[in-house]
Structure formats: C-alpha cells, structure tokens
Design brief:
Layout: H1 8-11, E1 15-17, E2 27-32, H2 45-54, E3 63-68, H3 77-87, E4 93-96, H4 99-113, E5 123-126, H5 136-146, E6 152-157, E7 160-166
Parallel strand pairs: 1-5, 2-3, 3-4, 5-6
Antiparallel strand pairs: 6-7
Helix pairs in contact: 2-3, 4-5
C-alpha cells in the first residue's frame, strides 16, 4: 500500500514573501552628466543649462531614471534638480545615484505601501532567490516592516530556511 505524499509546507500557516513578485516593471536608465562638464570635471552653468534645454528628454518616456556623474567632479545640488525639471514630464521616477539605488527606492515605495495585517502572529519566510534584481536593502526594509507583527521570520526556501527572528513569548 502506497502512502500519500503530503505537502506540509502548503498546509502550514507559513506565509512566503517573494520580493520578485513586487518588482515594478519598466525600463531602467542611467543618465551620466559627466559628458556635459567642462573637461569632464567642472560644471559651467551656462553650458550646462544649454545641454539641458537642447536634450531630447522624451526618449525617457515611462523610464525609471538614475542621474549620476561618473567623473570625480563636485556637482552642485541644483544641477540634478535642473535635469529633473526637464525629465520629469517623461520619466516615471528620477533619483540621484546608481541603478541599485534606484531599484532600492522603487522597492521601498512598494514595501511602505503594504499593510502588515496579514502577517500578524504568523510565521513568515522571505524568499531569497530571484531572477529579477532585488537589492539587499529591499530585504532589510521588508524585515523592518514585518518584524513588529510577525510571529517568526525566516529567509530562504521552506525546505532550507535560515531563522532570523522569533517573537518572545
């Protein structure tokens, strides 16, 4: 007589959170301003403003854009603000930084928008593997969001998880 195989994980109260499911679809772009600097190092306001006014910003329609400077120039804060005024009518989101910082901010916005009611006094596992770019800071933000309410938090897969937190009785 064969014994029926029972999926204990599927029947448990364990809630799995896969941050990959929260990935916001859309094109990510990085905009490097170093080409607009005099000798790649110094920002000249008049020339910089000319570049901003002549650039085709519509190419960033519906993009998530990270503004950066690949040279070691000191960039005044208004420079990124000026670019943002020109690109904002087209881009979905604009940040100063690299693509990982952009991704982190997108995830943080999503994590901040969730309610934690479904995690109250429940064991939670944060899935670790993903095919989409999930920055480490997204995992930390999620943990901080659910830790005050969850019974326990683990990381990994149900079959091989690492315990991270257990509420004291």
């Amino acid at each position: 007589m064969e014994k029926e195989i029972v999926n204990k994980v599927a029947n448990s109260k364990l809630i799995t959170i896969d941050l990959e499911d929260w990935y916001i679809e859309g094109t990510r772009s990085i905009f490097d301003i170093s080409d607009w600097l005099f000798e790649g190092l110094m920002l000249r306001e008049k020339e910089f403003r000319n570049h901003v006014s002549r650039h085709n910003w519509s190419q960033y329609k519906d993009h998530f854009v990270a503004l950066s400077c690949s040279s070691d120039a000191i960039i005044p804060g208004w420079a990124y603000l000026l670019i943002t005024t020109a690109i904002s009518p087209y881009a979905k989101k604009v940040v100063v930084g690299n693509l990982e910082q952009l991704e982190t901010l997108l995830y943080e916005a999503k994590i901040n928008s969730i309610t934690t009611n479904q995690y109250i006094d429940k064991p939670v596992i944060i899935k670790g593997c993903s095919n989409k770019p999930v920055p480490e800071n997204a995992y930390i933000s999620l943990l901080q969001k659910i830790q005050p309410v969850a019974k326990s938090i683990m990381y990994g897969e149900a079959c091989s998880s690492v315990p991270l937190y257990k509420k004291k009785k």
